[in-house]
Structure formats: structure tokens, C-alpha cells
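=== RUN LOG ===
request id: a7f3
mode: sequence -> structure
chains: 1
length: 326
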Amino acid sequence: MKLPRRKFLHLAAGAAALPAVARTAWAQAYPARPVRIVVGFPPGGGADIVARLIGQWLSERLGQSFIIENRPGAASNIAAEAVIRSPPDGYTILLVTLPANAINATLYDKLKFNFIRDIAPVAALTRDPNVMLVNPSFPAKTVPEFIAYAKANPGKINMASSGAGAAQHVAGELFMAMTGVQMNHVPYRGAAPALTDLISGQVQVFFDVTTSSIEHIKAGRLRALAVTSATRSEALPDIPTVGDFVPGYEASNFRGVGAPRNTHPAIVDKLNNEINAALVDPKIRTRLSDLGATVLVGSPADFGKLIVGETEKWGQVVRAANIKPE
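=== RESULT ===
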């Protein structure tokens, strides 16, 4: 039977639309099984804490488990590559950590991936400063006193970080470049072991993120000399900024969520909407604020612009300081 041309075109158009309709319906049913949130750092650090808070909220909200999978190593590159090589189905997503992921784009010249190209931005989560920490027994109680002590004792201060080229390391390198002090870099596999050695006095200073160190500050186990953001932290209002004493100094950390590229836009949008709902939940917002973090609500495009901007900014610092991975 020969169909009229108009009816034929209508049926053909409907058939062509079926795959898109099916994909959208499938995305609306997402998630239908547990989702892995891959974190590039060990348990106990700032990234892990944020991931677990958001993962628990999403689990309760969506009725499926959001499982935190810690895959530390290579300054978070192992975790990033694992997600990039996963199927783009929304069931393996990445806890993006900036500036770490941004730094790595310049720090490592033989990466098997391009972070900006291969990770689809889903949503930003938080912004928080580092905090310049010393052991309470350390003689300096202010940033100017620290600078004076370091210059009087060149090379005798051990500066911890969560790994070569990590955010804490680069923040410390920027501090050295802008003040002229010399410190020995001591890299650890994550923030938790670095904090342990700072508390025990094995190292003298650590530019850690507030989310993993604030409880130690409040308990008096560590002394905060300054925060690294341009303005004071709401969680530590009495602590000055490094920039108060070193004009122009600023370093902030961002957390977010990314997925493998080619993840269906409907899944990305659903995750973005749910994560933004979590960030305006008073309980989540208060908990993150208590940890020193400010929530960031926005679109996937907003987060994508942030990733590009941070990659450009910290690439310049890595090149100027000639930082190399260890």
C-alpha cells in the first residue's frame, strides 16, 4: 500500500525521534542502581567529607545508594582517569577537586586524558579557603612572625602537603614565592596523614583546606595563622587572611561533580538539579558552613567556566614555580 507523502513523512519523523525519546525516558528513570562517586583522595580529607555529605543526601533523595569510592594516587589523576574511562551512563561520577584537577593539566605533560575535554561538568558544590596551620608549640603566632622566623631559619621548616602539585603544595609554593622564605616540601598521600604529623610536630606548617582541619583548630590541636582566601572565612571570622600581610596572595579550593564526556544531557541536568537542591537544604548548608565551606549553586555551564578559569590560573603558577610531580 502506498502511503500519502504527508503521512509517510510524519511516521518517518516519529520513528527518528524514538531513540531520543527512549534515552530521555531512561534518563528520567535514573538512577536505577547504585552510583559510584570516585574521590581521588583518602578517607578523612576535605574532598572525602564533602563527597560523603552529598552522597548520603542523594541516596536518601533518589532511593539509590551513592557509594563513595576512594582512589587516591597521582594527585587525583588515578580517580579522574577511572571515571573518564567509565561508561557515560551516570553510574560512575567524579568528585572534582580544584585546583588539583586544574593543576594537573599543566603539572603532568603525559596524561592520557584532557580533563576539560573528557569530563562533563555537572555541578559545583563548595568553595573554601586553605588555612595556614602550625603546631601550637611553633614559636610564630602570626604570619609576619612566621615569615621572620622562616627567614632567620632558612630551610629548617618542613611544609606538609597532600602530594606534589596538590592544592596545599601550590598554595605553599605561592607563599614562598611572594615572601621569599624557604621551606622543605614534605608530600603525603592525602590530608589526613599530613594533619597527623603536623599535630605530632613532625612537620611545622600545612596549608590545608578548612573542611578537614577546622575541627582540629577548634579543639586547639592546631593553630591557624591565616586563611588563604581574599576575604575572611565565616567559619573562622577571627582569623585574618594571608593577603592582609602578603598583598595579592589568594588561593581557594572548589569541589564539584563531573561525569564522563558524552553522558546524556538529561542525566547531567538531573544530577545538577538534585545537587543544587541539596546545597539549599538548610541542614547540608549549615553542615558545610560549619566546615568552612561556602556552597555554590549553578548550572553545568557555570561549573565548566570555573574549571577552565582555574586551569588557566594555576597553570601559570605551576610553570612559574617550575613545579614537577614526584
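=== NOTES ===
The longest helix spans residues 5-28.
The chain has two domains: 33-128+252-321, 129-244.
=== END ===
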